[in-house]
Amino acid sequence: MIDFSVDSIQNALYDHHPQLINRFCRLTFDDNNAYAHYLLHPWQLNKYVTVTIDKNGKVTAPSELMAEMDMHESKLTQNYIDWRESWMKAHRHLKDFCKL
Questions:
Q1: Are 36 and 20 spatial neighbours (Cβ–Cβ below 8 Å)?
Q2: Which burial class, exposed, middle or buried, applies to 40 when counting CB atoms under 10 A from its CB (0-12, 13-18, 19+)?
Q3: What one-character-per-residue DSSP string does 1-58 give?
């Protein structure tokens, strides 16, 4: 059982998917559940979805939101890989200093 606070809600969201803690627009909770509200992309459509966290820390999230979070995670990973490869090419003289 968890006591709902911003920290406990963010921990449960992060454990479910790391991107969930960066993108909610509002957190609410009652005696039984906490709710994280998200605006789906593209934002022009104004489509909101809600993730529910119960007292046991179980997170229930819509599949369309999870697909969006996976997309964000993939972009971040690819951006990091691209940055690292660019850095390594620009710093070839340090080839023995760090490896990919």
A1: yes
A2: middle
A3: -----HHHHHHHHHHH-TTHHHH-SEEEE-SSEEEEEEEPSSGGG--EEEEEEETT--
The CA distances from residue 30 to 5, 8, 27, 38, in Å, are 11, 14, 11, 18
The contacts of residue 43 (CB under 8 Å, 6+ apart) are: none
Average pLDDT over residues 54-80: 87
The domain spans of the chain are 6-94
Residue 45: count other Cβ atoms within 10 Å of its Cβ.
9
| Mean of all residue pLDDT scores within the chain | 82
pLDDT tens, residue by residue, 19-57: 898 788 899 989 999 999 998 877 667 889 999 999 999
